[in-house]
């Protein structure tokens, strides 16, 4: 497989990464409650285009906000930060809404190829919140979220 073909394959697989616009959410923002009781207002993209766009090109993310990606399968979902302008905490969540992995402070992609962030175990959801929020909220693997 050539490098170009591999790049195109990875690009296609990661199309739902860095998860931008609230106009793609169902019934407006949703709420995610962390184990410590903190409530985050999150956008939930409903279309392929919305998942592909994610949080791209946003100059900032307000405190206690984020984006929740809902996948149809339990799998090792990958995220990348292409065209993201802000650092994010990435939180992978399983079917029972238990945190299975956290990547704190994933930086914006400075140059291609962009790093790819994956959970070491299968997940159903990925929550993106402002960098530093996971630590500030004492979020850890094993914690259960409500949404």
Written overview of the protein:
It is a single chain. With 147 residues, this protein is α+β, with helices and mostly antiparallel strands. The chain has a single domain, classed as Jelly Rolls, CATH 2.60.120.1140. It contains 3 helices and 8 strands. The strands form 2 sheets. Strands 1-2-3-8-5-6 form a 6-stranded mixed sheet. The chain has a two-stranded antiparallel sheet with strand order 4-7. Strand 2, helix 2 (48-53) and strand 3 (65-75) form a beta-alpha-beta unit. The longest helix is centred in the first third of the chain and has 11 residues, at 3-13.
What structural class is derived from the secondary structure elements? alpha+beta
Q: What is the string of helix and strand elements?
A: HEEHEEEEEEH
Uncertain spans: 1-27
Please name the CATH architecture.
Sandwich
Sheet with the most strands: spatial strand order: 1-2-3-8-5-6
